[in-house]
Amino acid sequence: MLPPHPKRDFATRLIAWQKAHGRHTLPWQGGEDPYRIWLSEIMLQQTQVETVLPYYTRFLSRFPDIEALAGATEEEVMAHWSGLGYYSRARNLHKAARRVVSEHDARFPEQFDAILALPGIGRSTAAAIAVFAFGHRRAILDGNVKRVLARVYGIDGWPGNKDVENRLWQLAESLLPVADIRAYTQGLMDLGATRCTRNKPGCVDCPFSDDCLANIQGRQKDLPGARPKKALPEKTTAMLILKHGDAVLLEKRPAPGIWGGLWSLPEYPLDIDPARAVAGMGYGVGAVEKCAPSRHAFTHFRLNIQPWLVNVDRPTFAAEPGCIWLALDDIDSAALPTPVRRILSSLRVL
Ligand code: SF4
Questions:
Q1: Global pTM value
Q2: Which of 8, 82, 192, 308 is the most exposed place for a label (fewest CB within 10 A)?
Q3: Residue 226 lies in a domain
Q4: 313 or 51: which carries more pLDDT confidence?
Q5: Where in the sequence is the domain holding 277, given as residue range(s)?
Q6: Residue 5's pLDDT is what?
Q7: Is the peptide bond between 224 and the residue preceding it cis, with omega within 30 degrees of 0?
């Protein structure tokens, strides 16, 4: 006999579970300030709560409201995001804050379409903001929710596939409760993050353990379906660490592009002689050292970096536009991509 279908009382059970077992003390919970809720939703995209917490606190203490964020330079915003990854989130957050100030009189818009129109806010994020800040009845469908729904309802296929995603959206909308939308939405997030995790789902303590199709059929590992396998392309580059005393030369990366707006090391093709390249830049070249290579995974490719440490004896401290000399002691507070920070941190212990 088929198990009872959970659809009818899915929301009721989830709300009850959230109230008893969900998360209630996260710093962005308990208030209805759309700025704080928006910030948390953007930081939480592809990033776990534990990682977000210190960034969220630091960011808010420097940019306590939307006007403070809109009035900041991109450099400051990027410096406070540095290390959190997916930097287009920070650039869009900054752009959106400026737009809210100029087009909405510094009041975060309440209407769903106006939220969705802001840079960096997709359908699910707009819905989460509409729910938590304004109590609107909207469906969310982030990665965690896709996993929960695919498992409970046995929906096969990779959720990145449009047809699968459309089915999940229809399901998510059909399940919405009439009341208690905040607890329901938080419950979906909490269940996905704390019980129905990707690798070790805690089915024994799950409110849907009796009728979740993945649990009944032992298919937790198969649902949701994996992205069709495709080897990630690899890119390789050389980075030059021009060092004079305790300072290194950094260039600002153009936006858009990877690490756009962040400070990075000058990049060169692998086959170039680093000493000649640096001499060509007009510097007197001292000792040259090949450093340990570094590897970094992006969503769409892997980047292999070969760093070269080149001591220079004639730094142009008033560097060309778009370049700075940065003391190694200051790398923790500068807006650097994580792999570059890691490469430079290793120099401090030499
Ligand atoms: S029973 Fe297991 S697989 Fe199903 S929703 Fe709960 S935690 Fe996820």
A1: 0.77
A2: 8
A3: no
A4: 51
A5: 234-348
A6: 63
A7: yes
**Residue 14 sits in the same domain as residue 69:** yes
Among the listed residues 41, 67, 173, 251, the single catalytic one is 41
Judgement on whether residues 119 and 246 belong to the same structural domain of the protein: no
Instruction: Indicate the top mutation candidate among 151, 210, 211, 216 to test ligand 1's pocket, ranked by most ligand atoms within 8 A of CB.
Output: 151
Cβ burial of 41 (10 Å; 0-12, 13-18, 19+) is buried
* Distance, CA of 53 to CA of 341 (rounded, Å): 21
Which residues form ligand 1's pocket by a CB distance below 6 Å? 148, 151-152, 195-196, 201-203, 206, 208-209, 212, 214-215, 220
pLDDT in tens, 128-174: 999 999 999 999 999 999 999 999 999 999 999 999 999 999 999 99
The yes-or-no verdict on residue 1 having pLDDT over 70 is no
Residue nearest to atom 2 of ligand 1 (CA): 203
Q: Considering the chain, what percentage of its residues have pLDDT values greater than 90? A: 77
**Residue 173 appears among annotated catalytic residues:** no
How many distinct structural domains can be found in the chain?
2
Place of tokens 């995790």: 197
Reading phi first (left if > 0) and then psi (alpha if -120 to 50, else beta), residue 86 is in left
**For 43-73, b where at least 16 C-beta lie within 10 A, e where not — what string?**
bbeeeeeeebeebbeebbeebeebeebbebe
